[in-house]
Design a protein that fits this description.
Elements (H helix, E strand, L loop, with lengths): L16 E12 L2 E13 L4 E5 L6 H8 L7 E12 L2 E4 L5 H7 L4 E4 L3 H4 L6 H13 L3 H14 L5 H4 L9 H13 L5 E5 L7 H18 L2 E6 L2 H7 L2 E6 L2 E7 H6 L4 H8 L39 H5 L10 E2 L11
Parallel strand pairs: 3-8, 3-9, 6-7, 7-8
Antiparallel strand pairs: 1-2, 1-4, 4-5, 9-10, 10-11
Helix pairs in contact: 4-5, 7-8
Length: 339
């Protein structure tokens, strides 16, 4: 059910993960900065939600906050993240460590962009794949090994019986990423966060990894939160998109609607920067200026310094992202088509 291709997927309209006004602050030598500012979105089973934006906009910080892996210098300072659990919901922000550990992998899982550092170099991949089944499901070593073999075959690892005893460095980048995905979906989580899952992979392998994620999403009826700066990837793989800028979500909606009719100047600028019909020698379009220093985010709209529509109200009043499925944080959304 992506913008460009239809998939036979059942999408539950009730979010399995509902993030509401999540805020994260980071303590630095220069002072405390707001890296994620009142971010809200919902992820539904059977669909892919993309968090899209430039590097440093807060996408990965949002993900690490949700899975409880923030660095010691970062703290969640506001908001909630409610995850459906056993007929009710659990707030990931207030859940204690024991509760989070019990839900890790079984309800919420993450795939990191650097597979080599995410896998433990000291243990065979078979050992690492079998571990979740032993810890969470209480399986014996033999039973867990059997499950690990099934997973390796499912994600396309050739000759899994012989590769079980190999170490992470003995696999290619694409195969390591498949192993990470296998570990993430091992316990059938409700939500899978994929943080730049195709970084540093060649185009062919990228397509294979995304096809695998798409198949697993359907098979397990998961909600997938795809973190990326790649507009083409969003157009091909995502159902809905939340565009982030300077720690804020500035526009949300279905990928088809947002890409066809952007209502925020930043979204329009991103789309204009893609050389769709560019010819050799043509000038490439870009967004002028740079994101604001998060130590000194200006009052009003966070995009004002780079916005061609900026007026007095933009310097004093911050536009509020209103609505659920289709929303924009802009004072003049009806004028964006003319930018």
């Amino acid at each position: 059910m992506s913008a460009l291709a239809d998939h036979d997927v059942h999408v539950d309209t009730t979010p399995v993960l509902e993030v509401d006004r999540l805020s994260v602050e980071v303590r630095t030598i220069s002072g405390t900065l707001r890296a994620v500012n009142e971010v809200s979105f919902g992820a539904r089973r059977g669909e892919t939600l993309a968090l899209l934006g430039e590097s440093g906009c807060g996408k990965s910080m949002t993900a690490t906050a949700l899975v409880g892996l923030l660095e010691p210098v970062a703290d969640i300072v506001g908001g909630s993240a409610r995850l459906a659990h056993q007929g009710g919901t659990v707030d990931l922000v207030t859940a204690d460590r024991k509760k989070r550990r019990a839900m890790a992998g079984t309800e919420l899982a993450i795939v990191f962009q650097d597979a080599l550092t995410a896998l433990n170099p000291l243990y065979t991949v078979g050992t690492q794949l079998a571990e979740p089944f032993q810890i969470h499901n209480g399986l014996s070593a033999k039973e867990a090994k059997s499950k690990a073999l099934e997973l390796m075959a499912r994600v396309g690892i050739p000759q899994p019986e012989t590769r079980m005893n190999s170490y992470p460095h003995q696999f290619s980048g694409g195969m390591r990423q498949r192993l990470l995905i296998a570990m993430a979906v091992a316990l059938n989580p409700s939500v899978l966060i994929a943080d730049e899952p195709t970084t540093a992979l060649d185009v062919t392998v990228q397509a294979q990894i995304m096809a695998l994620l798409r198949d697993l999403r359907t098979e397990y009826n998961m909600a997938v939160v795809l973190i990326t700066h790649d507009l083409a990837l969003v157009a091909e793989e995502a159902d809905r998109v939340a565009v982030m800028y300077a720690g804020n979500i500035v526009e949300t909606g279905s990928v088809a609607e947002v890409f066809a009719n952007p209502r925020h100047p930043y979204t329009k600028g991103l789309l204009n920067s893609v050389p769709v019909n560019a010819r050799r020698g043509d000038s490439l379009k870009s967004i002028g200026g740079s994101p604001p220093d998060l130590h000194a985010v200006p009052a009003g709209c966070v995009y004002q310094a780079r916005c061609p529509l900026a007026r007095d109200i933009c310097t004093t009043t911050r536009p509020i992202l209103s609505g659920t499925d289709r929303a924009t944080a802009c004072h003049f959304p009806e004028e964006v088509t003319n930018v």
